[in-house]
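Hi C.,

You asked whether I'd gotten around to modeling the 103-residue construct. I have! Everything is below, sequence then structure, no commentary in between.
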Amino acid sequence: EDLRLINVKPVGSLEDLLELLKEIELQAFESEARLIVIDSIAALIRAKSSMSPADRSGLVSGIASTLKKLAFNFSLCILLTNHVTHHNKAALGNTWHHAVTTR
């Protein structure tokens, strides 16, 4: 019965994720959602390899800002996984490290 309360929204691209975040923001007032789990945006961002590092960094910052706003405005808990690269570094990098305020 409790599994009916779980809503899974797979996304195949960064554009899909950004669109879904807009939907969540628009529907948050009517929703009883309390937790958003994103596993993981690193692969979606990595797929944008044609972007410059500065543009990619700006995109990561924008997503972090949107997630913070959702968490604050609607009392949502946001859990986002991060991958570790083969060099034993976080895949989302330094920009994400400085964007996250609660671990």
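If it helps when you're writing up: The first helix runs from residue 14 to 27.

Thanks,
B.
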